[in-house]
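Retro notes, item 3 of 5
We never archived the inputs for the S-adenosylmethionine complex last cycle. Fixing that now. Sequence and ligand:
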Amino acid sequence: MSEARPPICDYEGSDYQERFWELGGREYEDCVEAVALNRLLPEGGARLLEVGAGAGRHTPRYQGFQQIVLLDYSRTQLEQAKARLGESERYIYVAGDAYRLPFAPGVFDSATMIRTLHHMADPQVALRQVRSTMETGGVFVLEYANKRNLKAIARWALRRQVWNPFGYEPVEFVELNYNFHPIAVRGWMSEAGFEVFRLLTVSHFRLNLLKKVVPLGVLVALDSLVQWTGNWFQLTPSVFLGAEAVGEGEQAPEGAFWRCPVCGSFDIEKTDAGMRCRGCDRVWPLRDGIFDFKEPLGD
Ligand SMILES: C[S@@+](CC[C@H](N)C(=O)[O-])C[C@H]1O[C@@H](n2cnc3c(N)ncnc32)[C@H](O)[C@@H]1O
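Structure as it came back at the time:
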């Protein structure tokens, strides 16, 4: 458990879901993301991890999965997700950090991370963490913000933007908001133990004027069609990729699900106060149906 702990873009108390999605005129982006997700994820499975689940915008789309674990750093985002999805054995709400996930190796057969990598100052650590929690052969759907998009290229060519969209290094355009180069992301995926099987380019028509004048259904249908060009070139602001977890994964003891994010022990018992790690004696609280692996009790 010696991975670095980079700074976190904290959504605690944020009205992101309402402001950005429900009142923000982003039906088009939401619909085309749903199309891409549907194309990349298997129809179902036993247990899916959603990293940076936020208010659970995408969660109802994971229809065929028996159990879904919503992981987010923000408790208030998870509270919104819980209000939307309800309490049931099918959903497990976990407040935790993508840089040190509180799960045993190989416990998920699928994972998604949508609109979350762009907050990662150290994306490689987060991708390695996701891989470690997945079984070999599992499917990971990742969305990332693409710095080599048409608008950025045009702005750079017209000298209205200083950073080079063709450079492989991430660009931090606002504090803790990064755009990445597709070739860099592909390299990190491979280093983390993923084999990319399909790229889909998404949000080709993310222009306010187009969204105003072209009916939503037409725009979504066109985007759905050109998403398939993603394997050949990626010039959209958003890219989805489907990848398979490959190589040997770490072995966990039979039946282990949790992993202490501080000491790495799998020996975790449920107590009245929360989840107690027998390795380091920390207790991770369980409050209002949300497992909290951010701050142990008494720290
Ligand atoms: C832009 S929102 C996206 C939410 C959701 N995936 C969606 O598409 O609607 C980014 C989410 O990532 C979460 N996040 C940021 N850094 C994180 C980290 N280090 N660990 C876990 N979640 C993180 C934020 O709390 C926020 O809910």
